[in-house]
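Table S7 (text form). Paired inputs.
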Amino acid sequence: MLVDGAQLWTLNQRLLAVVLDACARELAELGLETKEFFVLAEVEASPYPAEIATALLLPKASVTVYVRNLVAKGFVRREIDEADLRRHRLVLTDEGRGARDRALAALAAEYDRRLARVTPQDRVELRRILNVMLGRTESDRTGE
């Protein structure tokens, strides 16, 4: 039986929604809304709001609001970029790093509960498939 992309997309979205919903209380206890968490988790890889918007496929105006909230909560601070004094880069505070790490741990634990239903061989195959879908080469994957 051939499964089309829309069906797989829907299943993946449902899985992610279930995992996020199961972690909503823990995120709230950390003072994070779901989208704020995603922005917080992206700051080190993409320290500029426009980069975060691109990476997360969010409107720049929305990222601006999330960043403002994260700054107000003490999770992120703005610093002048030494390479371009007209720009501000975002930096995680120690509190922000801790909140991010605890939120990631909660999401990982919930996802692991779901993965426990899958054999180790199927986990390896799932990882391989996801990497292929992301267009990653074998050399990209060896560092994981």
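Next pair, protein 2 of 2.
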Amino acid sequence: MYRTRVLIVDDSHTMCALVQLELSSDPELEVVAVAHNARDARDAIDQFKPDVLTLDIEMPGMDGLEFLSRVMKHRPTPVVMVSSLTARNKDLSVEALSRGAVDLFAKPGSGPGSRNVSFEGLAQVVREAASAKVVSPHRREIASATPQITAASGGFDDKVIAIGSSTGGVDALLAVIGQFPADCPPTVVTQHMPAGFTGSFANRLDANAAPEVVEARSGEVLQRGRVYLAPGGKTHLEVAHAKKLICRLREAPPVNGHRPSVDVLFNSVANMAGANVVGAILTGMGADGAQGLLQIRNAGGYTVGQDRETSVIYGMPRVAYEMGAVCTQLPLPDIASAILNACRRSSKRGVA
């Protein structure tokens, strides 16, 4: 049986030992080398040709972000950023995702008051990262490039947009929401991301999009021109009705292995807004969101799925497509215009 070859890059010998202990316990993974700085990591990549890297943000000399950029330029390889939850590291980790890193994993014991010293769950993240489609920066720019025509505003009736994504979703969401006009329909988004990172991601989206992008808060009324991102880790984002449609954050066990779950969001918005929903499922591992997208379609809503060629991992969109949940499947650069065009069609019932 072939085992996924992993290179661990972290300046802390203790952290390297803990990561190696976790990954070595998985029969599908093989730790081929450990490096404590960029120079040694570069040599290890040349010698061992790993399938996946785990990479720390803070390292002596060349930091993890600069090293990541060089890896993506010279030998594109799936990279999982393993980061402590400092404010600076959260921002840099989200930046790393936009530069080609596949996923994030929060270092144990790095959150406020945390006593956790376990890397439990990292092995699964690394296994999933191994199947990601990683390309050079130039090809990534082409794949996610937005059309030159700016999306027109208005004519959206009472539509609601719901989007779900996972691995590769940072780039995908930047490409889609970056095309939305300032008065876009209220948009709710669940992106699989560890606790602590979604605030930085919301800020990044907000800085690169015309509508306002915020981390969702329970009880917020859905408004035109706003995008609500599910907070990572502790709650599910749902859409509920309290005279008007609102965000609701609900503490509950993971669904499909995820919290927040795309299925939870999609099911709720289908129940609350029915035919007025336009749903989109983007790149990601697994099947989360497929059943919920089918519910949106069955309720009369319009649904879009990202195609295989532009998905970092064609998992969630594939399952949704195969079960008949997708009205149309499109490459990433075409998804925003398809969503907005669907929102301009006549609706059967109002949001309020």
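The domain at 4-134 is CATH 3.40.50.2300 (Rossmann fold).
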